[in-house]
Automatic annotation (TrEMBL):
This is ABC transporter ATP-binding protein. The keyword Signal does not apply. Residues 281-308 form a coiled coil. InterPro entries: AAA+_ATPase, ABC_transporter-like_ATP-bd, ABC_transporter-like_CS, ABC_transporter_ATP-binding, P-loop_NTPase. It comes from Wohlfahrtiimonas larvae. SMART domains: AAA. Keywords: ATP-binding, Coiled coil, Nucleotide-binding, Transport. It comes from the Bacteria. Residues 9-240 form the ABC transporter domain. It holds the Pfam family ABC_tran. Signal peptide: none annotated.
Amino acid sequence: MIETKTPALAITDLAKTYHNGKEALKGINLTVEQGDFFALLGPNGAGKSTTISIITGLLDATRGHIEIFGHDHISDMRNAKSMVGLVPQDFNFNQFELCEEILINQAGYFGVPRKIAKERAKKYLDLLHLTDKARVMARNLSGGMKRRLLIARALMHEPNLLILDEPTAGVDIEIRRQTWDLLQKINATGTTIILTTHYLEEAELLCKNIAIINHGEIVQHCSMDALLRQLQSESFVLSLSEPLSTIPNSIEGLTFTAINPMTLEVEIQKPHSVTSVFDILKDHSINVDTLRNKANRLEELFIKLTSNKEVE
């Protein structure tokens, strides 16, 4: 008999209506398996933050049931909350406290003895490349360092489930890529990660499975690969070696548009591929220097799913 693992997170019929009558969640169902790197995406106001707040015990649900590694988030709240580490969007630590003390105090909230907390603080400051900032006040850190401090703080009680709410918002490309590498290493150790982000290339790169929420409802819940296979067309921008003399005629499934004499855009519909494009360009003696997607693949699907359009 194949042993079935308890899901890291199991949400059943979760609903939330605020006092002003706004229905933020409309009975969503969601499962995240142990060890997953999971994307929870949606436009602003879709219900992501409400869902995270309920999971982490910051907000009460109107109805529904949540289990975190088999622990009921109401009747077994202590154990359920101990399983979760949250990296919020905002810098919600004491800006005048030393970085090391922020981490040690956080561990104390979960009953970690101070001696062990000090050891862990050093461990996670090293992991997050903040070792030389241990005795520095948080207010003196750069924005990227503060983001990393939030991650270190969330790891201090060594949770099984790490939830990151926009962890790379407002940081530069170098810090973003360092954060991606770090999160992949954390996930490789067995920690389940749920990521919310507006950088859709980030979700496509990192995540194995995905749920998209819109107007309080889950509109997609599948593997990242399965979702991307739904995309029936892609648009590419081609930079040319020489100015265009003629534009190839569009045919069924392939549409060519000149952006300027040195740039050609092509929309490719299945079953055509990039190979089909290059065959036509070769016939027209058009040489290509570079090729790039006009938009991230996940971005195209996301827009269609959240604007109530059919996926084409």
